[in-house]
Design goal:
- By secondary structure, this protein is mainly α.
- The protein has one domain.
- It contains 22 helices and no strands.
- Helix 6 packs antiparallel against helix 7 and helix 12 packs across helix 21.
- It starts with a helix and ends with a helix.
């Protein structure tokens, strides 16, 4: 019954997403001039995704073969496990299925997003509210598809293995490959999209705005279409893959902890209740989908109202409904007869997660909106030149790690203590898992707001490039300003959810190692090998960030050279009498981004495997990987927060004074390439160690 409910609500959400797609595509698609620009954005985005997913598909198949070989021929069998060939097959197929579902969700979301932009632009000619609803509902197609496909995939895998009569408590460890597949695709999607979007943006700004003195989104800039394409492949496809990975990995990690909680409390749960305990994460996620659907559909704004207020109302509706769903779900599924108070302890853990998500939204807003001190301080420092701009911006970036750290710490400790006081043995970690579910309960609505950003950004570009009247441009500027805010808020939400999910997955890793016969009561960093493992984890964060930011530099240099070449070769471009070769710039960025994403991606996947196998020679493989994972996660959370909020503050300081291009171009690869890629890295480290833990024991 439970799994039928989960699959049924997943299909319902997919059907709603398909209906929203139809609603968006039925809207007016503008004038011929507007369609010409929109078609160029569509072609560029879809060409990039085709090339990107071909590359990711090839890498996924190669890694799938490697996983099968390692599981079938190199890992030691452990008591109570399925046969080696069976485990190798289920892990490999779940890995490939996770990668496939992530890819499908990203493609569908992108397909609608690049068709929503022109319809939003067209609607803006007559109504702000109509444009707002089209952009948000276009974004909701991506949000609902991502979360539904993530949930549906885990549900289908569980259903198949349950039908094959595998023991329910063993199933989560047999499908950990699904989370790893999602992480693998997310890493390359976020890296490739992030490199593309910022290389195009930096290249277009430095030559067009700084050197040639033409406005942003000016049709005379040869890189302007590449810039508009980049908004979609980075913020839509990249972030969608990021949150797909978060929900998939968290679902499986929480199922593993649920299984461990049932085994730690023998006789407390009936066999049916054990299944309910394990499937609670999926049920909670399904209720969150329903809450997000309602939140999206209630959004409406007056013509003179700040659109952000309307979006915030929708978010609060979603959060409130998700909290009610959590309370009902805990009372239904986490309420054993001998422990009548357990359910409300876990319900409060879910509320803590939801409150944490709201806290991250407002913290990010404080550090990245021009109404507040951090951005104003950077703007003030810019008066004395680019050097003081960069010094002030980096100081804000360092400062902004404090409040998120306090918030995450409070959420982890309070949810752990609440879970531990439920009366059940070893239930503290499950309390933190429920808090993570709470934070991710609004993921579909948050992703809809994120995709709203590139849709409205593109709509503004289409209005500008098709020379529409000034009053229409002012209307799209209002939506674009809100879109910039929602993109920043989503990054804050993503790093907060990544932090909680990483703690959950670290706990699941310890549970898996214990199940394999090598329990770790503690990770002892006084052992030299274990200390070195932690040091390597911290170093990986910095090395990975350097490769990601360096990749933007290389690709941006190619764009800058191409834009300068076109301006020199044809002076008529700047005069407005000749049309730039937009396609050439798009091709250059595409090739550069796809080449540059491979090295940091392979480093992220290969490093934990190398550490585990090397230190296994000292009989400390599992413990050293635990230290690597723990310290790497902590370093990644802080670095991602620094890059996201610091880069966002720089960007909005530029918007505040419309100077400070230095700060903007420094902040761009921070907030849109390295920072978001670190969200994925944090969870990838957890999923790769979960999948390959048997090799390290």
């Amino acid at each position: 019954m439970l799994i039928a409910l989960v699959l049924g609500l997943s299909v319902l959400a997919l059907a709603v997403a398909w209906g929203l797609r139809g609603y968006v595509l039925r809207q007016d698609n503008g004038t011929a001039d507007m369609r010409k620009i929109s078609d160029a954005i569509q072609e560029g985005a879809e060409a990039f995704l085709r090339r990107q997913y071909r590359t990711i598909g090839s890498l996924s198949i190669a890694l799938g073969v490697l996983i099968y070989v390692l599981y079938a021929f190199f890992r030691k069998p452990h008591a109570g496990e399925p046969a080696a060939a069976t485990l190798a097959l289920t892990t490999t197929l779940s890995f490939l299925f996770g990668a496939f579902c992530s890819g499908i969700a990203g493609l569908v979301g992108m397909y609608v997003a690049v068709r929503s932009n022109i319809r939003t632009a067209s609607a803006a000619r007559s109504s702000l509210n109509k444009a707002l609803q089209i952009a948000l509902r276009g974004g909701a197609v991506s949000g609902l598809f991502v979360v539904s496909m993530s949930l549906f995939g885990v549900g289908i895998l569980y259903t198949i293995l349950d039908a094959l009569h595998f023991e329910p408590t063993k199933i989560p460890l047999m499908i950990v490959g699904y989370g790893f597949g999602a992480s693998f695709v997310a890493l390359f999607a976020q890296l490739g999209g992030g490199i593309y979007t910022k290389a195009a943006d930096v290249g277009a700004d430095l030559v067009g705005k700084v050197e040639a003195g033409i406005p942003e989104d000016d049709p005379r800039n040869p890189a302007v279409i590449a810039d508009l394409v980049g908004d979609n492949v980075g913020d839509c496809a990249g972030r969608g893959a990021d949150l797909f990975e978060s929900t998939a990995a968290e679902n499986i990690g929480a199922m593993i902890l649920g299984s461990g909680l049932a085994l730690a409390n023998p006789g407390v749960f009936s066999p049916t209740q054990v299944v309910g305990l394990m499937l609670f994460p999926l049920v909670a996620r399904a209720f969150g989908l329903v809450a997000s659907i309602i939140g999206v559909l209630v959004v409406k704004a007056r013509e003179d109202e700040d659109p952000m207020r309307a979006l915030n109302r929708g978010y609060m509706w979603t959060a409130a409904l998700a909290a009610i769903g959590f309370a009902g779900g805990t009372y239904w599924l986490l309420n054993p007869a001998g422990h009548p108070d357990a359910w409300w302890h876990f319900a409060l853990c879910g509320v803590i997660g939801i409150a944490t998500s709201i806290g991250f939204v407002y913290i990010t807003q404080y550090y990245t909106e021009y109404r507040y001190r951090p951005v104003k301080s950077i703007a003030a420092a810019s008066v004395t030149g680019p050097a003081t701009n960069i010094i002030a911006g980096f100081a804000v970036a360092l400062e902004c790690t404090a409040l998120p750290t306090f918030t995450i710490s409070a959420a982890i400790i309070s949810s752990y203590r609440l879970g531990a006081s439920s009366g059940l043995a070893h239930s503290g970690l499950f309390g933190t898992a429920v808090a993570t579910m709470g934070m991710l309960g609004t993921a579909a609505y948050i992703l809809a707001m994120d995709t709203f950003g590139p849709i409205t950004d593109n709509a503004g570009g289409i209005i500008e490039m098709s020379h529409q009247p000034e009053d229409i441009r002012k209307r799209t500027d209002r939506l674009d300003a809100v879109g910039n805010t929602t993109k920043a808020l989503t990054k804050g939400y993503a790093i907060g959810s990544a932090a909680l999910a990483a703690f959950l997955l670290f706990s699941a890793y310890l549970d898996e190692v214990a199940a394999l016969g090598s329990p770790l009561a503690a990770v002892d960093i006084s052992k030299p090998e274990v200390f070195v493992g932690g040091l390597l984890g911290a170093m990986l964060v910095f090395w990975f960030s350097a490769l990601a930011i360096g990749a933007v530099t290389k690709a941006a240099v190619s764009v800058i050279k191409e834009v300068r070449r076109q301006f020199q070769a044809d002076p008529g471009i700047l005069k407005g009498t000749s049309r730039p070769d937009y396609g050439r710039a798009v091709d250059i960025v595409t090739i550069g981004a796809l080449k540059a994403m491979v090295a940091p991606g392979l480093l992220a996947v290969g490093m934990p495997i190398a550490v585990g196998l090397f230190f296994k020679l000292f009989h400390l493989g599992a413990e050293t990987v635990a230290a690597f994972l723990m310290v790497g996660t902590i370093g990644g959370i802080l670095m991602a927060t620094l890059l996201n909020n610091g880069g966002g503050a720089w960007d909005n300081a530029k918007k505040f004074i419309e100077t400070g291009e230095y700060g903007d171009t420094v902040g761009d690869p921070f907030k849109d390439t390295a920072g978001p890629s670190l969200h994925v890295l944090i969870k990838l480290l957890s999923t790769v160690t979960l999948v390959l833990a048997p090799l390290f024991v």
